Amino acid sequence: MSRRVKEFVDIGDHVPLDELIEKLAEVRGSLPDHAEAELRLRGDDVFGRRITITYMRDQTAEEAECEKRYAEAEKEAKAKELERLQAELGVVCYAAPGKRGKLRIVG
Predict the structure, then answer these.
(1) Which of 78, 83, 79, 30 is nearest to 53 (CA)?
(2) Residue 28, domain extent
(3) In the chain, how many domains are there?
(4) What's the rounded Cα separation, in Å, for the pair 57 and 36?
């Protein structure tokens, strides 16, 4: 199953009304089904204001592949860190059978 990703579209604060209406209609026309789109006004007087449209979309195959690589690398890094800590402390953790994956510490 593919994850969903939150996508952002920003529109600056100094936009003519006709251009704003065109942009909003364009965004609405390109939204995927079940996008759950939201419109918010963001910013302040110092840095400026903008209209932000957020919506949910399915993750692309490229994004899923990249996330998979990073998830595997993170899992390996955590396993190495756990091994290092166990060696440092002289404690071994293992999943106890029948305990719904809870860890049991033997030391």
Answers:
(1) 30
(2) 4-58
(3) 2
(4) 9
